[in-house]
Design goal:
Blueprint (H helix, E strand, L loop, with lengths): L1 H17 L4 H8 L3 H13 L10 H15 L4 E5 L6 H19 L5 E4 L3 H9 L9 E4 L13 H11 L4 E2 L10 H8 L2 H12 L2 E4 L18 H10 L2 E3 L2 E3 L8 H5 L6 H4 L4 E5 L6 H9 L5 E5 H8 L1
Parallel strand pairs: 1-9, 2-3, 2-5, 3-4, 5-8, 8-9
Antiparallel strand pairs: 6-7
Organism: Paenibacillus donghaensis
Family: Belongs to the SorC transcriptional regulatory family.
Keywords: DNA-binding, Transcription, Transcription regulation
Length: about 300
Amino acid sequence: MDIEKQRLSIEAARLYYQSDLGQQEIALKLGVSRPTVSRLLQHAKDQGYVKISIVDPSEDLDILARELKQRYRLDTVQLCYSPQNDYEEIKKHISKQAAEYIHDIAQDGDIIGVTWGTTMHAVALQLESKPLRGVEVVQLKGGVSHSQVNTYAAEIVNLVAGAFHTQARYLPLPVVFDNVQVKQMVEQDRHIARIIELGRQANIAVFTVGTVKEDALLFRLGYFTQEEQQLLSRSGAGDICSRFFDAAGKICSQEINGRTVGIDLGELRKKEKSILVAGGQRKIEAIQAALAGRYANILITDQYTAQALLR
């Protein structure tokens, strides 16, 4: 009798947990009553034939966040759960997390500096309205492109400003000039100088990190010669605000950096909240280099990226 009960309880458990059959369907298959199926399933659990484990992603995220915070000496780590280790899927989830975080922390009188790119555009699209007083939103780098590739530069600053019921402050220039003298002359313009200074004064900076891979957005915008692109690919690890750095977080071409318009990377270290929003396997090296350079004190990413950064 006990052997028969064991056989029936294991068979009921297989049908219920592995084949997703309902208790009534199992009763018909086994030729027993529905209450008997319920007792068989309970017996299977009591005897250890069935072991149920519940995975709570939030618990794992909390552990990963603490480890990342300690490893990279960050003030805050916000991790979100992505169901797939896929770049577009990850971008969808981290941008939502970033939009919620920015919405929560923004206060009256903040100066919020933003950059551009597809990740930042995804963040801006999901930022909910929050009426505040005295907030300013400013571009941290030039946003005019030589290419038909969309950087979403103006749209991003406009969306963020709209969410906080304020006016956008644009930096209507190319992000990289061909000539350092021309760039320096343009920066002396009173209006341009005021926008750049507002970026320096921003207490919140929100940015992503670019790669030095062939398909990187900046490489598709026509700013660099073939030789310059090869130099950056060879010696660089990534960019923030279109300023390229190596694996240690140090500027990898002073000449190109001198032609770049916008906030200096050193200024990001001074921000009350310097928020890096980035994730995905293709950006691991760039994120790690950015954290090595201490350019962010807040990281918003996903569990797959977090695990890779800790490895």
